[in-house]
């Protein structure tokens, strides 16, 4: 699976989830390593985004750089 496909899968999971704002969180993938950045409205949103990314098929690791800004 290439990096662009992984990014698309993670963004798709965000779009389906009511807790995570797909528009506020950026997803970048390099060699199976996903980096999340942007802003979350709560710690729960940040945590959920990380979990969704980690549970995406093909993702090797996740670096969660999301900033919580209520």
In short:
Helices cover 37% and strands 31% of the residues. With 70 residues, it is of the alpha+beta class.
Describe this structure in words.
This protein is an alpha+beta fold. It has helices at residues 3-16, 43-54; strands spanning 25-30, 33-40, 61-68. It has a 3-stranded mixed β-sheet. The mean pLDDT is 97.
Q: Helices and strands in order, then pairings?
A:
Blueprint: H1 3-16, E1 25-30, E2 33-40, H2 43-54, E3 61-68
Order of helices and strands: HEEHE
Major sheet strand order: 1-2-3
Give the proportion of residues in helices.
25-40%
User: Low-confidence parts lasting 5 or more residues at pLDDT below 50?
Assistant: none
User: How many β-strands, per DSSP?
Assistant: 3
Distance between the termini: 35 Å
Q: What does the largest sheet look like?
A: 3 strands, mixed
Work out the strand percent: 25-35%
The chain-level structural class is: alpha+beta
Rg, rounded, reads: 11 Å
Q: What shape does the CA trace take?
A: globular
Number of helices: 2
Mean pLDDT: 97
Output the keywords.
single chain; 70 residues; alpha+beta; three-stranded mixed β-sheet; 2 helices; 37% helix; 31% strand; globular
């Amino acid at each position: 699976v290439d990096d662009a496909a992984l990014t698309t899968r993670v963004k798709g999971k965000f779009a389906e989830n009511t807790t995570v704002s797909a528009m506020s969180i950026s997803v970048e993938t390099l060699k199976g390593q996903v980096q999340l950045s942007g802003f979350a409205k709560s710690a729960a949103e940040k945590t959920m985004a990380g979990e969704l990314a980690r549970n995406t098929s093909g993702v090797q690791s996740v670096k969660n750089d999301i900033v919580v800004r209520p």
